[in-house]
Structures are given as C-alpha cells and as structure tokens.
C-alpha cells in the first residue's frame, strides 16, 4: 500500500492543532480554597443575627431613620451603583460579541488603473466588446458606489467568547456584592457613631452633674476656710478639680460636634443636629446572639461573596486566554447595490453579495497570547489568595467579636457595681468631712473616682454596642 507522503505532511499540522485544541478545551482544575472550621466557638444556632433586617436588628427608631436617609443619599453607595452599571455594560459588550455584527454602509470611491496593469488592459479591451451596453463601459479613473450592508462574525466553536461572557457576568455579580459591602460598612459606621453620640451625651450629663457637686463642695470649703476649719490649699485643690471637670465638658462638646459632622457626611447632607433616642444606658442589648453555622455565616458576607466571584471570574478569564491559542472561524458577508455609475446604482442588475469564511490560528508570534495567559494565571492565583485571606479574616473577626461581647457583658456588670459603691463613697466622704473624720483630699479622691467610674461605665456600654454592630456586619447583616 502506498503512503501519500505530501498529504500526511499537510494534514499532520492540522491534526496536531486539533489535539492541542482538545487539551486547551479541558476545563482547569479548581484551585484549593481555605475551608472554614465546622464549629464556631462551640456555639451553633439555627439562625444568625446576620440574617436580620436593619429594622429588626436596630430597635431605635431614630437610628433607623438615619440609616434610611443614608442608604438613599450616601455618595459612596452612589459610586458603587455606577460601578454596577459599568459591569453591566461590560456584560452587554461581551454578550454582543457572540452575535454577528451588521453595519449599514453607503460608500463611494474612485480608482485609476495604470495602462500597463491587468485591470487597465482588461478594462480597455472590454470597452470594445460587443457584449456590453453603453452603461457598462468603464472609464479611467473608475468610480465605485456601494449601498448595502456588511457583516462579520466569529463563530464561537471553542467556547472562548462564551467563557469571556461568563467572566463578565461573574464580575457583574461581584460589583453587586461590592455595593452590598459598601452598604454594610455604611450601616455599621453610622450605627457605631450614633451610639458613640449617645455615650457622649451621657458623659456630658455625668460631667455636668459632677460639676454641680464640685461647685457646691468648693463653696463649702470656702466657707470653712473663712471659719478657720480649712486652709487655702484645700480651696485651690477643689477649684482645680472643678476647672478640670469644666474643661472635660468642653472636650465632650467638641467630640459631639465632630461626630455629628461625620454622621451628616455619611448621610450626604450638610451639618445639622442629629436627633437622638433613649440614653445609652437605657438602650437594650439582645439577651442572646445566634451566629449560625460558620459556612452559612461566611457565605452571607458580601466581601466573601465578592472575593469568590472574582476568583471564578479570573478562572474563566484564564480559560479564555488558553482558548485564544485555538483557530478562530471568521465569517464575513456583504449584500447591496454596487456599481461604477451612479445612474445605474438602483438598477436590479447592480445587486451584489459575497460570503467568505476561514480559519485563522496563531503560528509564529504567540508571545503576546502567552503573556496574556500568564497574566490571567497570575490574576487567578492572586484572586485565590485574596479569597482565602478574606475567609480567614472573616472567621477570625467574628470569633473575636463573640468573645469580646461576652467579656464586655461581664465587665459592664462589675463596672455597674463599682459605680454604685463609689457613689455611696462620695456621700459618706462628704458626711465624714463635715463631721471632721475625713480630710478634704479624701473627698476630692472620692469625687474623682466616681466621675471616672461613671464615664468608664458609659464607655463600656458603648463598646458593647460597637462590638454587637461589628458582629452584625461580620455575619453579613445590613445589606438586605
């Protein structure tokens, strides 16, 4: 049997090309991602606070009103919304690449053929033919008119274009999760600032109340000095303590002004007073907090979802970069009226059409495609590392906040008892001083201690709310 060597020589590159295509079309194996632990501080619940809506989680109607306004007017959310619009446009563009492009065309031109060219000689001789009518005789220069449509289409035989469309779709979903992430952060920031504002209000009230008591103590010590029962040093000490408390009041007022400004900025409006609800100590904390199953908790977080979608999108981009090495089937077509005389352009005889299809594949200069593949592979690995980091940080953050909330509750209970004891101590020290059984330094110390304890008690309550708000955000709450 004879072997057709020339035929094999031409068919061998084609066979190798298609074998390489089979390799390129094989989906990439999914990279290994970090797995969250099955237990979560040994506390698993059927529900999670992350699944609660904003109105159900926050019971203060004034805070909810602030959040409603912020979700409408916040500039960062508006920017995130425009990023979604951009991603949607990218998806539309890549979806449109799957379909043929059809362009309407009206064109005109002119050509002059040289006398010693094939066209020049052929056209010259054709004009003497008896088979053509006067309208078919060609001039030199020769005009060219066309009215019709042209179309180009790359047939997606390997799925390259569909892979790119899928990557764009995943990125579109990722931008939506990015907007949700901005919203959860916004809700947490405003709520945290709101409770900080309530804390400062309470601290201001404490300072003002203690300033009144210190003013009364100063007046008493002045009277005792005039009666010879106290000296000038005692008067100076009480006066200095009152001045220190008054300076604290001014500092608190400045902090209130700064926080109100920050809240108004987040709400996208100019500065105006922030209406508040009940004092911080009257605000209710939930008795129990459900965290849910770790995997479900992590799946709710917008940043985890966004990182996961970005990872999948980069994997699709890498697959599309690999498929770019395969041949492309391109089809071009046109139809319309074509003539070299404008007078006969609309004549039915001027109807023309054409169709051309072919496979094109990179052979020599493949470095650009290889560089694109390497870039896509590096981005895919970067997305994987970012995804694993996001999962790790999300889990660690939530675990830390759960422990923080438990410890703050214990500290708050002890601090309440401490404050009660110190308040009684102030009353006792005043009575003992008037009876001559305590020095003025003991009175000053008692007043300073109770002021510090009351301020710290308020701060602890504010930290409880901040930790709870952060836990709500870390469990994926605040965006529904």
From TrEMBL:
Major localization listed first in the record, in broad terms: membrane
Keywords associated with the record: Lipoprotein, Membrane, Palmitate, Transmembrane, Transmembrane beta strand
Superkingdom per UniProt: Bacteria
Subcellular location: Cell membrane
Keyword Membrane recorded: yes
Membrane-topology annotation of the record: Lipid-anchor
One Pfam assignment: OEP
Designated name of the protein: TolC family protein
Organism encoding this protein: Arundinibacter roseus
């Amino acid at each position: 049997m004879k072997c057709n060597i020339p035929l094999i020589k031409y068919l061998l590159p084609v066979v190798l090309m298609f074998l390489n295509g089979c390799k390129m079309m094989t989906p990439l194996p999914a990279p290994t991602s970090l797995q969250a632990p099955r237990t979560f501080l040994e506390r698993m619940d059927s529900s999670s606070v992350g699944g609660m809506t904003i109105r159900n989680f926050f019971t203060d109607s004034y805070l909810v009103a602030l959040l409603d306004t912020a979700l409408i007017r916040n500039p960062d959310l508006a920017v995130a919304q425009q990023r979604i619009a951009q991603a949607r446009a990218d998806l539309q563009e890549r979806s449109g690449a799957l379909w043929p492009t059809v362009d309407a065309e009206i064109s005109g031109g002119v050509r002059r053929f040289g006398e010693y060219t094939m066209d020049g000689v052929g056209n010259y001789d054709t004009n003497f033919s008896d088979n053509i009518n006067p309208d078919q005789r060609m001039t030199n220069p020769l005009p060219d008119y066309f009215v019709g449509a042209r179309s180009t289409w790359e047939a997606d035989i390997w799925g390259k274009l569909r892979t790119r469309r899928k990557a764009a779709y995943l990125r579109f979903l990722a931008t939506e999760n990015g907007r949700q992430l901005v919203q959860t952060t916004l809700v947490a920031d405003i709520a945290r600032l709101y409770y900080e504002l309530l804390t400062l209000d309470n601290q201001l009230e404490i300072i003002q109340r203690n300033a009144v008591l210190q003013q009364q103590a100063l007046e008493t010590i002045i009277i005792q000095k005039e009666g010879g029962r106290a000296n000038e040093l005692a008067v100076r000490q009480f006066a200095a303590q009152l001045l220190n408390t008054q300076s604290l009041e001014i500092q608190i007022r400045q902090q209130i002004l700064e926080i109100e400004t920050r809240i108004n900025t987040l709400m996208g409006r100019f500065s105006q007073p922030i209406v508040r609800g009940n004092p911080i100590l009257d605000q209710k904390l939930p008795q129990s907090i459900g965290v849910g199953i770790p995997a479900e908790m992590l799946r709710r977080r917008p940043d985890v979802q966004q990182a996961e979608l970005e990872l999948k999108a980069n994997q699709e981009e890498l697959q599309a970069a690999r498929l770019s090495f395969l041949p492309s089937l391109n089809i071009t077509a046109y139809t319309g009226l074509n003539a070299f005389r404008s007078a006969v352009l609309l004549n039915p005889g001027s109807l023309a059409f054409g169709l051309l299809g072919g496979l094109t594949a990179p052979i020599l200069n493949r470095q650009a495609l290889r560089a694109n593949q390497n870039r896509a592979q590096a981005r895919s690995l970067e997305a994987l590392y970012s995804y694993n980091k996001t999962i790790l940080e999300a889990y660690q953050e939530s675990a830390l906040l759960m422990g923080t909330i438990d410890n703050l509750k214990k500290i708050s209970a002890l601090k309440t008892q401490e404050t009660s004891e110190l308040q009684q101590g102030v009353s006792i020290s005043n009575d003992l001083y008037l009876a001559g059984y305590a020095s003025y330094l003991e009175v000053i110390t008692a007043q300073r201690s109770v002021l510090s304890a009351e301020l710290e008690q308020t701060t602890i309550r504010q930290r409880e709310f901040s930790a709870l708000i952060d836990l709500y955000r870390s469990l994926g709450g605040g965006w529904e």
